[in-house]
Amino acid sequence: MKPRRGATDLAGVLLIDKPSGMTSHDVVATVRRATGEGRVGHAGTLDPLASGLLLVLVGRATRLEQYLVGHDKSYDVRIVFGTATDTLDSDGKVTDSQPVPSDVLDPDHARAVLVSFLGTQQQTPPVYSAIKTGGIAAHRRARAGEVPDLPARTVTITEARLVGIDAATRSWDVALRVSKGTYVRALARDIGRAAGTVAHVAALRRTAVGLSGVDEALDLEDVLDSARRGTLPSRFIDPVPLLGLPVHELPAGYRIDGGLTTLSGSAGDERVALVTPTGLAGILVSKSGQPRLETAFVPEIAR
């Protein structure tokens, strides 16, 4: 059998500090060109305006995406009050301007507004988003002049901490911790309404995904330099802690056959990461006490 076109032996997860102004797809395409590996993806899209932690998956590790997108995420956001835009951030066109109540600049009032957003709630996503309706992304419909009907989704806000207020720009700097599926732009819109005006996101930085922080991330130029030098494998992180799953240790030298459907002697609570001393061998799922090999990595993804 011929090797898959564009495939290399590279396999791993990169933590990249995405610069503002690039799309997540731009970062993926840049890594793909630099490595010659066609299988490159990411877990958790960042808007072009946003900077910060982007999980980039290379080679066989692209199959980890489904296990990584569900993590909580942390952000630092600047919310500007008094103007609304079509994209809910400063990259969009201004659609509304309203007076800003004086109490918006009062720290105690600001904290009270933010506290009201803690917990589980329904959030209507932005029309400029990648959510598909009828197989077409909402942002494509919006740019064509349509108003996509996007149903509200359940999200959870576990932290909404006021960092500072800038009276000159009528803005709040806020630290957030949110669940999968939360749109910070939509949260800023709703915070503006709760404050008695309108608002949009002026700056956004993702600081953490699950247990991984942006302080561990590489600049994109560092990644490209490593690719040129042939040292990129040394920049991959251990994928096992990133998964946040219980771990089942396999004996040294154990190999999982791709056709294996069960693994005797292993039990899992929902999902378990199967690891050897040197790599991630697979993901085991357990239903009604019956373990089944859901994903196998052959060869393993190095730790």
N-to-C SSE series? EHEEHEEEHEEEHEEHEEEHHEEEE
Strand content: 35-45%
CA-based shape = elongated
Contiguous low-pLDDT stretches (5 residues minimum) are 258-262, 264-268
- Measured as a percent range, the helix fraction is 10-25%
Radius of gyration: 22 Å
CATH superfamily of the largest domain: Pseudouridine synthase
Number of helices: 7
In the CATH hierarchy, what is the architecture of the largest domain at level 2? 2-Layer Sandwich
The quaternary organization reads as single chain
Describe what you observe in this structure:
This protein has 303 residues and is of the alpha+beta class. It has helices at residues 24-35, 65-68, 107-115, 138-143, 184-194, 220-229, 239-243; strands at residues 12-18, 40-43, 51-58, 73-81, 83-85, 94-97, 119-123, 132-133, 136-137, 153-166, 171-178, 199-209, 212-213, 218-219, 247-249, 270-275, 279-287, 290-302. The chain folds into three domains: 1-69 and 210-237, Pseudouridine synthase, CATH 3.30.2350; 73-209, 2-Layer Sandwich (Pseudouridine synthase), CATH 3.30.2350.10; 245-303. Strands 1, 2, 3, 4, 7, 10, 11, 12, 13 and 14 form a ten-stranded mixed beta sheet that branches. The protein has a four-stranded mixed beta sheet with strand order 15-16-17-18. Helix 1 packs parallel to helix 6 (220-229).
In short:
The protein has helices at 24-35, 65-68, 107-115, 138-143, 184-194, 220-229, 239-243, and strands spanning 12-18, 40-43, 51-58, 73-81, 83-85, 94-97, 119-123, 132-133, 136-137, 153-166, 171-178, 199-209, 212-213, 218-219, 247-249, 270-275, 279-287, 290-302. Mean pLDDT is 89; it is low at 258-262 and 264-268. It is 19% helix and 37% strand.
